[in-house]
Design brief:
By secondary structure, the protein is α+β, with helices and mostly antiparallel strands. Helix content is 28%, strand content 26%. A hairpin with a 5-residue loop joins strand 9 and strand 10. The protein is globular.
């Protein structure tokens, strides 16, 4: 892809300086014993490091986390096939959950890691791990990781990315991941969080009292001529200080959207701007 041509044309062209034949490439690609997730991570870390030299040192760096459903509606005997919930259609489907972690710099996007998840709930799995798989192989370890919950797998991806040398200041997440246990785990990894918050039953402490997200709106002076209405700094149930930014929902103007940031020093506009980097992962996954 870096040569602007497909692999077949590249291998059959004049490969000056290359000491390997095309059979070497094909044997590498066909070998299932390699740790392909680690290969992608190390390659991504190299690329992210190269891209970082092209931007200003003070530029904010982020990791973007998202999940999508890999549908296998007609499959029956696929290993670890499961019944998974799709947040787009709001229903259970047969397939897998594709958990993806990416690194955008505002111009480029580098896929950092992925996990093809089955279901942590055994009753939702149609098939189990094959008895023929050697327990000492990378394939077996990948199968065991596929049985983790999404928050566990997500934190593992983030920690692996940081251990590989990928630099980031924030993790951008959607409403499914923006829950207090997830915030604690990401903060423990040394990163701040910016995420969309869903209006559930959670309460936030403000001026000594507990409020829901809609109730916090009364503390913000609304200006209908702006898309960012304002913000309040609150604390979660376990005492984590967060800034809640209230923005206009362009798809439904009668409702608001709520962005949460564990870095309360950021301005409202900066939180919205940084969160806009999540779009690059949506383009990659096609959702």
């Amino acid at each position: 892809m870096f040569q602007g041509r497909n692999l077949f044309r590249f291998l059959n062209s004049k490969r000056k300086g290359l000491a390997v034949s095309k059979n070497t490439y094909y044997r590498f690609l066909n070998d299932a014993s390699f740790n392909w997730a680690k290969f992608l991570l190390l390659l991504s870390a190299k690329l992210a490091g190269m891209f970082s030299t092209l931007t200003r040192p003070e530029r904010i760096k982020v990791l973007v986390l998202d999940d999508s459903v890999a549908k296998r509606g007609r499959s029956k005997a696929v290993e670890l096939l499961a019944r998974v919930y799709g947040h787009v259609e709001h229903k259970y489907q047969k397939g897998f959950t594709m958990l993806t972690l990416g690194w955008p710099d505002g111009y480029s996007f580098v896929p950092v890691g992925f996990d093809l998840l089955s279901s942590a709930n055994k009753s939702n799995r149609y098939q189990e791990i094959s008895d023929k798989i050697d327990h000492w192989t990378n394939g077996y370890r990948a199968r065991k990781e596929s049985l983790m919950t999404k928050p566990e797998a997500a934190v593992l991806l983030i920690r692996r990315a940081l251990a590989a040398g990928i630099q980031a200041d924030y993790v951008l997440i959607d409403t499914w991941f923006t829950a207090e246990p997830m915030l604690i785990k990401i903060l423990d990894a040394g990163l701040d969080v910016i995420g969309m918050v869903k209006q559930l039953k959670q309460r936030y402490s403000y001026q000594g009292r507990l409020y829901t997200l809609p109730q916090l709106r009364k503390f913000v002076r609304f200006d209908n001529s702006k898309n960012i209405f304002g913000s309040v700094i609150v604390t979660t149930k376990t005492g984590i200080p967060v800034k809640i930014v209230i923005v206009r929902n362009r798809n439904k103007k009668s409702e608001c959207l709520y962005l949460l940031s564990t870095d309360c020093s950021l301005s409202d506009a900066e939180i919205v701007r940084i969160y806009g980097n999540r779009w690059s992962l949506k383009v990659l996954s096609g959702n």
